[in-house]
Structure formats: C-alpha cells, structure tokens
Write a structure and sequence with these properties.
It is a single chain. The protein is of the alpha+beta class and about 100 residues long. The chain has one domain: YaeB-like fold (2-Layer Sandwich), CATH 3.30.2310. Helix content is about 30%, strand content about 35%. The protein contains 2 helices and 5 strands. It has a 5-stranded mixed sheet. The protein starts with a strand and ends in a 13-residue tail after the last strand. About 25% of the residues are buried. The model has no long low-confidence stretch (mean pLDDT about 90).
Length: about 100
C-alpha cells in the first residue's frame, strides 16, 4: 500500500473549502471534507486511479475527482508515496497552483 502525505498547501486548501461551505452549512462542510479525505484514501490501494496531469522528475502528477473538486497528487512510484498537493474546485485553473518549480 502507498503512503499518503498531505502537504501543508493541501491542508490549507481543505481548511479554505471548509470555511467557505461552513458559512452557509457547517454539516455540509464536514461532509464535503470527510468525502474528500475518504476519496483520497482510495489512493493507498490504487495510486494510479487518477488521470495523468503531468509527469515530473519526482513522479507523475495525477488528478482524482470528487464531486466538484479535483484532488491533485504526486505519485512517487519509487518510494510508493502519494503527496496530496492540493484540492481544487473544478472552476479553478489549477495550472496556476501546480507549478512545482516556482
């Protein structure tokens, strides 16, 4: 099984998503965050389930869909590690946020 690591950036994204939804409905916010977390856990057994976004020297960046959200992750195959890079609403241009070099 792959190890899943949430980056500080991805944790910030989750907190922002929670805060935004919780303004209207705290229970819905909890359900969305729990759903995103549970969906990401499927990567432990199926790390290549997401579609390929881009290849990097460290591994492959893939996107896993959950409702209106895209979970971006880096699969480091040699180490069998999944780094969750961010969780983005489908309307966002993730190219702005997934610049690993800058």
């Amino acid at each position: 099984m792959a190890e899943i690591r949430w980056t500080s950036e991805s944790e910030t994204w989750l907190a922002d998503i929670y805060d935004y939804i919780a303004e209207d409905d705290q229970d819905a916010a909890i359900k969305v965050i729990e759903g995103i977390y549970e969906k990401a856990q499927t990567l432990r057994q199926f790390p290549d389930i997401g579609y390929i976004y881009r290849s990097e020297k460290e591994g492959t960046i893939r996107i896993l869909l959950y409702g209106h959200y895209r979970i971006a992750y880096l699969h480091r195959k040699k180490k069998n590690i999944i780094d969750i890079l961010g969780v983005f609403h489908g309307s966002l241009d993730i190219d702005r946020y997934l610049d690993l070099e800058g």
